[in-house]
Amino acid sequence: MRGGYAINASSHIAAQVKREFTQRYKEAFGKGPEDTSVNVAGDVVVIKLKGFLTPIETAMRMLPDGAEKVEGIREAIYRSFMSEIGSLLKGITGRNIASVLKSLNLEEEEEYIFIIMEGVAEKAG
Questions:
Q1: Tens of pLDDT along 90-103?
Q2: Once rounded to an integer, what is the mean pLDDT over residues 71-92?
Q3: Is the predicted pLDDT of residue 4 greater than 60, yes or no?
Q4: Which has the closest alpha carbon to 114: 98, 96, 125?
Q5: Which residues contact 28 (CB under 8 A, 6 or more apart)?
Q6: How far apart are CA 22 and CA 1, in angstroms?
Q7: Could you give the CA distance from residue 118 to residue 125 in angstroms, rounded to a whole number?
Q8: What is the pTM of this model?
Q9: DSSP for 19-81?
Q10: What distances in angstroms separate CA 73 from CA 51, 67, 84, one per listed residue?
Q11: In the structure, what pLDDT confidence band is assigned to residue 79 with cuts at 50, 70 and 90?
Q12: Is 48 left (phi over 0), alpha (psi -120 to 50) or beta?
């Protein structure tokens, strides 16, 4: 489907992404976030995580350059399962991921992941 999704399709996509993302996240990090929410806004999937740091990440972020190290580790782990999330989204929408952007706040233990699907640039241009 091109050009966004109907509301019921969006909630269906959000529920599937939340389930799959949380499962992959728990497998990869050994612990899931305290809260995960997923919203679909047209061609953008927004995942919000709250309360996600593992005990070792909590200790590591207190070290000199610790926050950067935690961010680097998290980025590497995300790469290990984002292709599976991309496959899930392709199966649901028929479109590939164009870009993934993240906003990480270690102090608040809050992270936003913005998954931008193909087609956004076409519509903007």
A1: 888 888 999 999 99
A2: 88
A3: no
A4: 98
A5: 77, 78, 80, 81
A6: 25
A7: 13
A8: 0.82
A9: HHHHHHHHHHHSS--SEEEEEEETTEEEEEEES---HHHHHHTTSTTHHHHHHHHHHHHHHHH
A10: 17, 10, 19
A11: confident
A12: beta
Measured at the alpha carbon of residue 117, what is the angle toward residues 114 and 122, in degrees to the nearest 5?
A: 120
Q: Are the C-beta atoms of residues 14 and 6 closer than 8 Å to each other?
A: no
76, amino acid identity: A
Could you give all domains of the chain from N- to C-terminal order, each with its CATH number?
A: 7-124 (3.30.980)
Contact 117, 45 (CB under 8 A): yes
Q: Which helix (H) or strand (E) holds 104?
A: strand 97-105
The pLDDT of 99-121, averaged and rounded, is 88
> Taking the alpha carbons of 25, 110, 5, 11 in that order, is the dihedral positive or negative?
positive
How far apart, in whole angstroms, are the C-alpha atoms of residue 61 and residue 71?
A: 9
